[in-house]
Amino acid sequence: xDHSTPSTKAIIKEAASLAFNPKNIIKELFHMQLGRGxxxxxxxxxxxxxxxxxxxxxxxxxxxxxxxxxxxxxxxGITGILNVTIEADGKITNYFWAILNNVSYIYISFVSYLYGxxxxxxxxxxxxxxxxxxxxxxxxxxxxxTKNVVESKSLSFKGWFILIILFAISWFGMGIFLLHVPFxxxxxxxHPWLDALSAIVQFYAMALMVMRYGSSQWLLWNIANMAEIxxxxxxxxxxxxxxxxxxxxxxxxGWYKWTYILKQN
Length: 265
Prior knowledge:
Number of strands: 2
Strand order of the largest sheet: 1-2
Distance between the termini: 24 Å
Structural class: mainly alpha
Protein backbone atom coordinates (compact mmCIF):
# COMPACT_ATOMS: atom_id res chain seq x y z
CA UNK A 1 0.00 0.00 0.00
CA ASP A 2 1.32 3.47 -0.92
CA HIS A 3 1.53 5.68 2.16
CA SER A 4 3.01 8.73 0.38
CA THR A 5 1.40 12.09 1.05
CA PRO A 6 -1.06 12.98 -1.76
CA SER A 7 -0.46 16.21 -3.68
CA THR A 8 -2.73 19.24 -3.30
CA LYS A 9 -3.95 18.73 -6.88
CA ALA A 10 -4.82 15.11 -6.16
CA ILE A 11 -6.69 16.07 -2.99
CA ILE A 12 -8.71 18.77 -4.79
CA LYS A 13 -9.59 16.37 -7.60
CA GLU A 14 -10.69 13.69 -5.16
CA ALA A 15 -12.61 16.23 -3.05
CA ALA A 16 -14.56 17.44 -6.08
CA SER A 17 -15.33 13.85 -7.03
CA LEU A 18 -16.61 12.97 -3.57
CA ALA A 19 -18.55 16.15 -2.75
CA PHE A 20 -19.88 17.37 -6.12
CA ASN A 21 -20.13 14.31 -8.33
CA PRO A 22 -23.86 13.89 -9.19
CA LYS A 23 -23.64 10.10 -8.91
CA ASN A 24 -22.18 10.34 -5.42
CA ILE A 25 -24.75 12.96 -4.37
CA ILE A 26 -27.64 10.78 -5.57
CA LYS A 27 -26.11 7.66 -4.03
CA GLU A 28 -25.77 9.20 -0.58
CA LEU A 29 -29.19 10.83 -0.81
CA PHE A 30 -31.18 7.75 -1.84
CA HIS A 31 -29.08 4.77 -0.76
CA MET A 32 -29.77 4.74 2.96
CA GLN A 33 -31.70 2.64 5.44
CA LEU A 34 -35.49 2.76 5.10
CA GLY A 35 -36.00 4.28 8.52
CA ARG A 36 -33.49 7.04 7.83
CA GLY A 37 -35.11 7.79 4.46
CA UNK A 38 -38.57 8.03 6.02
CA UNK A 39 -37.12 10.34 8.68
CA UNK A 40 -35.80 12.73 6.00
CA UNK A 41 -39.14 12.66 4.15
CA UNK A 42 -40.90 13.52 7.42
CA UNK A 43 -38.59 16.48 8.00
CA UNK A 44 -39.13 17.72 4.45
CA UNK A 45 -42.91 17.52 4.91
CA UNK A 46 -42.63 19.69 8.03
CA UNK A 47 -40.66 22.21 6.00
CA UNK A 48 -43.23 22.12 3.18
CA UNK A 49 -46.11 22.70 5.61
CA UNK A 50 -44.42 25.85 6.89
CA UNK A 51 -44.59 27.24 3.35
CA UNK A 52 -48.37 27.56 3.80
CA UNK A 53 -48.19 29.65 6.97
CA UNK A 54 -47.92 33.43 6.76
CA UNK A 55 -47.81 35.52 9.91
CA UNK A 56 -47.07 39.09 10.86
CA UNK A 57 -47.25 40.82 14.26
CA UNK A 58 -51.01 41.23 13.88
CA UNK A 59 -52.13 38.58 11.42
CA UNK A 60 -51.93 34.83 10.81
CA UNK A 61 -53.11 33.21 7.56
CA UNK A 62 -52.95 29.79 5.93
CA UNK A 63 -51.86 30.26 2.32
CA UNK A 64 -48.78 29.48 0.21
CA UNK A 65 -46.12 32.17 0.44
CA UNK A 66 -45.45 32.57 -3.28
CA UNK A 67 -43.34 35.69 -2.88
CA UNK A 68 -39.71 35.50 -3.99
CA UNK A 69 -38.58 35.40 -0.35
CA UNK A 70 -41.12 32.70 0.44
CA UNK A 71 -39.96 30.47 -2.41
CA UNK A 72 -36.30 31.15 -1.67
CA UNK A 73 -36.97 30.36 1.99
CA UNK A 74 -38.48 27.01 1.01
CA UNK A 75 -35.46 26.23 -1.17
CA UNK A 76 -33.13 27.25 1.65
CA GLY A 77 -35.04 25.10 4.13
CA ILE A 78 -35.02 22.00 1.92
CA THR A 79 -31.31 22.26 1.08
CA GLY A 80 -30.59 22.96 4.73
CA ILE A 81 -32.44 19.82 5.85
CA LEU A 82 -30.59 17.69 3.33
CA ASN A 83 -27.33 19.25 4.51
CA VAL A 84 -27.78 18.64 8.22
CA THR A 85 -29.24 15.13 7.87
CA ILE A 86 -26.47 13.95 5.56
CA GLU A 87 -23.91 15.74 7.74
CA ALA A 88 -25.18 13.84 10.79
CA ASP A 89 -24.31 10.62 8.96
CA GLY A 90 -20.78 11.91 8.33
CA LYS A 91 -21.08 12.06 4.53
CA ILE A 92 -18.97 14.57 2.63
CA THR A 93 -21.76 15.40 0.14
CA ASN A 94 -23.41 17.40 2.92
CA TYR A 95 -21.16 20.23 1.70
CA PHE A 96 -22.90 20.35 -1.68
CA TRP A 97 -26.24 21.01 -0.01
CA ALA A 98 -24.60 23.35 2.50
CA ILE A 99 -23.29 25.63 -0.25
CA LEU A 100 -26.73 25.92 -1.85
CA ASN A 101 -28.23 26.61 1.57
CA ASN A 102 -25.62 29.25 2.44
CA VAL A 103 -26.13 31.30 -0.72
CA SER A 104 -29.93 31.43 -0.38
CA TYR A 105 -29.83 31.97 3.38
CA ILE A 106 -27.47 34.95 3.08
CA TYR A 107 -30.01 36.84 0.98
CA ILE A 108 -32.95 35.96 3.26
CA SER A 109 -31.00 37.12 6.31
CA PHE A 110 -29.97 40.35 4.60
CA VAL A 111 -33.53 41.40 3.75
CA SER A 112 -34.50 40.56 7.36
CA TYR A 113 -31.66 42.82 8.63
CA LEU A 114 -30.11 39.92 10.56
CA TYR A 115 -26.54 40.87 9.75
CA GLY A 116 -25.01 38.39 12.16
CA UNK A 117 -26.58 35.64 10.04
CA UNK A 118 -25.16 37.25 6.89
CA UNK A 119 -21.61 37.40 8.27
CA UNK A 120 -21.94 33.88 9.64
CA UNK A 121 -23.01 32.34 6.35
CA UNK A 122 -20.34 34.19 4.38
CA UNK A 123 -17.90 32.56 6.78
CA UNK A 124 -19.66 29.22 6.30
CA UNK A 125 -19.41 29.53 2.53
CA UNK A 126 -15.63 29.90 2.69
CA UNK A 127 -15.29 27.16 5.29
CA UNK A 128 -17.34 24.71 3.23
CA UNK A 129 -14.53 24.48 0.68
CA UNK A 130 -11.86 24.30 3.38
CA UNK A 131 -13.83 21.53 5.04
CA UNK A 132 -14.12 19.51 1.85
CA UNK A 133 -10.37 19.73 1.35
CA UNK A 134 -9.55 18.90 4.98
CA UNK A 135 -11.88 15.91 5.17
CA UNK A 136 -10.61 14.53 1.87
CA UNK A 137 -6.93 14.98 2.78
CA UNK A 138 -7.50 13.12 6.07
CA UNK A 139 -9.38 10.22 4.54
CA UNK A 140 -7.62 9.63 1.20
CA UNK A 141 -5.43 6.96 2.77
CA UNK A 142 -8.45 5.08 4.18
CA UNK A 143 -10.04 2.21 2.28
CA UNK A 144 -12.34 3.16 -0.59
CA UNK A 145 -15.54 2.26 1.25
CA THR A 146 -14.95 4.61 4.18
CA LYS A 147 -12.96 7.51 2.75
CA ASN A 148 -16.06 9.71 2.42
CA VAL A 149 -16.99 9.17 6.08
CA VAL A 150 -15.59 11.56 8.68
CA GLU A 151 -13.49 10.38 11.62
CA SER A 152 -14.53 11.80 14.99
CA LYS A 153 -12.83 13.07 18.15
CA SER A 154 -13.91 15.08 21.21
CA LEU A 155 -12.69 18.21 22.99
CA SER A 156 -10.83 17.80 26.27
CA PHE A 157 -11.73 19.71 29.46
CA LYS A 158 -8.98 22.20 28.64
CA GLY A 159 -10.35 22.56 25.13
CA TRP A 160 -13.84 23.34 26.43
CA PHE A 161 -12.46 25.89 28.92
CA ILE A 162 -10.58 27.75 26.18
CA LEU A 163 -13.61 27.59 23.89
CA ILE A 164 -15.92 29.10 26.54
CA ILE A 165 -13.51 32.00 27.14
CA LEU A 166 -13.22 32.65 23.41
CA PHE A 167 -16.99 32.44 23.04
CA ALA A 168 -17.66 35.03 25.78
CA ILE A 169 -15.20 37.50 24.26
CA SER A 170 -16.51 36.92 20.73
CA TRP A 171 -20.18 37.24 21.74
CA PHE A 172 -19.59 40.55 23.51
CA GLY A 173 -17.61 41.94 20.59
CA MET A 174 -20.11 40.78 17.97
CA GLY A 175 -23.06 42.07 19.99
CA ILE A 176 -21.55 45.56 20.31
CA PHE A 177 -20.71 45.56 16.60
CA LEU A 178 -24.24 44.58 15.49
CA LEU A 179 -25.73 47.07 17.94
CA HIS A 180 -24.06 49.99 16.17
CA VAL A 181 -23.02 48.93 12.64
CA PRO A 182 -25.47 47.98 9.83
CA PHE A 183 -24.52 45.93 6.76
CA UNK A 184 -24.70 47.89 3.44
CA UNK A 185 -28.15 49.34 4.33
CA UNK A 186 -28.79 51.97 7.02
CA UNK A 187 -31.14 49.73 9.07
CA UNK A 188 -29.64 48.27 12.24
CA UNK A 189 -30.03 44.65 13.34
CA UNK A 190 -33.31 44.45 15.35
CA HIS A 191 -32.00 41.65 17.62
CA PRO A 192 -28.23 42.21 17.91
CA TRP A 193 -27.45 40.18 21.04
CA LEU A 194 -29.53 37.14 20.07
CA ASP A 195 -28.22 37.32 16.50
CA ALA A 196 -24.67 37.54 17.87
CA LEU A 197 -25.25 34.57 20.20
CA SER A 198 -26.45 32.36 17.37
CA ALA A 199 -23.70 33.50 14.99
CA ILE A 200 -20.82 33.02 17.43
CA VAL A 201 -21.97 29.59 18.63
CA GLN A 202 -22.28 28.42 15.02
CA PHE A 203 -18.92 30.00 14.17
CA TYR A 204 -17.20 27.73 16.67
CA ALA A 205 -19.43 24.74 15.87
CA MET A 206 -18.39 24.95 12.22
CA ALA A 207 -14.74 25.25 13.20
CA LEU A 208 -15.05 22.09 15.31
CA MET A 209 -16.79 20.34 12.43
CA VAL A 210 -13.93 21.13 10.04
CA MET A 211 -11.45 19.86 12.64
CA ARG A 212 -13.55 16.65 12.97
CA TYR A 213 -14.66 17.14 16.60
CA GLY A 214 -17.80 15.11 15.91
CA SER A 215 -19.69 14.93 19.22
CA SER A 216 -18.42 18.27 20.56
CA GLN A 217 -19.66 20.28 17.58
CA TRP A 218 -23.17 18.84 17.90
CA LEU A 219 -23.56 20.24 21.42
CA LEU A 220 -22.92 23.70 20.01
CA TRP A 221 -25.36 23.12 17.13
CA ASN A 222 -28.06 22.25 19.69
CA ILE A 223 -27.56 25.60 21.46
CA ALA A 224 -27.40 27.51 18.18
CA ASN A 225 -30.57 25.93 16.80
CA MET A 226 -32.54 26.90 19.91
CA ALA A 227 -31.31 30.48 19.54
CA GLU A 228 -32.24 30.46 15.83
CA ILE A 229 -35.79 29.32 16.57
CA UNK A 230 -36.31 32.29 18.88
CA UNK A 231 -34.61 34.67 16.43
CA UNK A 232 -36.82 33.73 13.48
CA UNK A 233 -39.99 33.71 15.62
CA UNK A 234 -39.18 37.33 16.46
CA UNK A 235 -38.58 37.98 12.74
CA UNK A 236 -41.96 36.41 11.77
CA UNK A 237 -40.60 33.83 9.33
CA UNK A 238 -42.37 30.46 9.78
CA UNK A 239 -40.31 28.73 7.06
CA UNK A 240 -37.08 29.46 8.92
CA UNK A 241 -38.67 28.55 12.27
CA UNK A 242 -39.67 25.17 10.84
CA UNK A 243 -36.20 24.66 9.42
CA UNK A 244 -34.52 25.26 12.77
CA UNK A 245 -37.01 23.05 14.61
CA UNK A 246 -36.00 20.33 12.17
CA UNK A 247 -32.34 21.27 12.60
CA UNK A 248 -32.63 20.99 16.38
CA UNK A 249 -34.15 17.53 16.05
CA UNK A 250 -31.35 16.50 13.73
CA UNK A 251 -28.58 18.03 15.86
CA UNK A 252 -29.83 16.04 18.86
CA UNK A 253 -29.64 12.93 16.68
CA GLY A 254 -26.17 13.95 15.48
CA TRP A 255 -24.93 14.44 19.04
CA TYR A 256 -26.28 11.02 20.04
CA LYS A 257 -24.81 9.27 17.01
CA TRP A 258 -21.33 10.78 17.24
CA THR A 259 -21.17 10.29 21.02
CA TYR A 260 -21.97 6.62 20.38
CA ILE A 261 -19.24 6.45 17.71
CA LEU A 262 -16.71 7.88 20.16
CA LYS A 263 -17.67 5.29 22.78
CA GLN A 264 -17.34 2.51 20.19
CA ASN A 265 -13.85 3.74 19.26
